[in-house]
Amino acid sequence: MIKGHPELIIPQHVGIIMDGNGRWAKKRAMPRSVGHRFGAQNFRKITRYISKTGVKVLTLYAFSTENWKRSFAEVNALMGLFKEYLIDLLTNFKEDDIKVVFIGDRSAFDKNLIELIEENEEQAKDRTGMLLNIAMNYGSRDEILMAVKKLCREVRDNGLDPESITVDDISARLYTAGEPDPDLIIRTGGEMRLSNFLLYQSAYSEIYSTDTLWPDFHEKDFDEAIIAFNQRNRRFGGV
Ligand code: IPE
Ligand code: IPE
Ligand code: MG
User: Fold this and answer.
1) Considering only CA atoms, which residue is closest to atom 3 of ligand 1?
2) DSSP per-residue codes, 25-43
3) Using one digit for the tens of pLDDT, what is the confidence trace for 109-156?
4) Which of 233, 218, 173 is nearest to 16 (CA)?
């Protein structure tokens, strides 16, 4: 529930493209890494808030398969922050019963980070609160390719009939298998694109883009996104 707005429908699954850390730092004449540090602090705070609103699944885009293109220094700063926060989350999300899961190709990360990812998932596995998907080295095209390869192997090895494959069979082989599709995708930083985020799952997602930069996106900004979502007319191709 959103405070002061008990009438609002709360989306089951919300995705957030946490964009604008670099611009936030630039505005303050600081290095981009400072923007990422403030962005990471905000991530922890807003996640705890969202977990109390009734959202069942939250998917946060933290690092894309394309973000490796950035300078070594920036990627390094991000990896350092991921480690710091994954240690912090072990205790921090426990109290809120948040079930943390990581989506994306973790094999590209260093051993220490992979261990922290596994430790977080292991400690969170029996939690029953909000499911939090943290998308790290995530790219939707890679995810769809992974699903296609799985299906091809099943055709080759298990006698799966290619003609019998359905759209749900594809969904069931994505990282988000078994989860509802996102109802709402929020993008901070003002861009109007998905940047390889949940392409298959977002077929009927409502998109909400705000100019607010990620480190400045607070509880009231989330509430505003939910209010805007409630004003949308979702038709799913019907009338
Ligand atoms: C989003 O902020 C964080 C990541 C992509 C890791 P950016 O770093 O993309 O910030 P801008 O878009 O350059 O302002
Ligand atoms: C999307 O932001 C990725 C994340 C927020 C993790 P980008 O900053 O990488 O997207 P583009 O480059 O503006 O499309
Ligand atoms: Mg960006």
Assistant:
1) 19
2) HHHTT--HHHHHHHHHHHH
3) 999 999 999 999 999 999 999 999 999 999 999 999 999 999 999 999
4) 218
**Ligand index nearest the alpha carbon of residue 22:** 1
Task: With residue 121 as reference, give the H or E element that holds it.
Answer: helix 111-124
The average confidence (pLDDT) of the chain is 97
Q: What are the residue ranges spanned by the domains of the chain?
A: 13-230
pTM of the model: 0.98
**Catalytic residue status for 21:** no
**Antiparallel, parallel or unpaired: β 99-103 and 131-138:** parallel
To test the ligand 1 pocket, which listed residue (16, 18, 19) has its Cβ within 8 A of the most ligand atoms? 19
* Residue having the nearest C-alpha atom to atom 14 of ligand 2: 195
Query: Residues of the chain whose pLDDT is less than 70?
Result: none
Pocket of ligand 2 (CB under 6 A): 17-19, 61-64, 67, 191, 193, 195
**Superfamily (CATH) of domain 13-230:** Decaprenyl diphosphate synthase-like (3.40.1180.10)
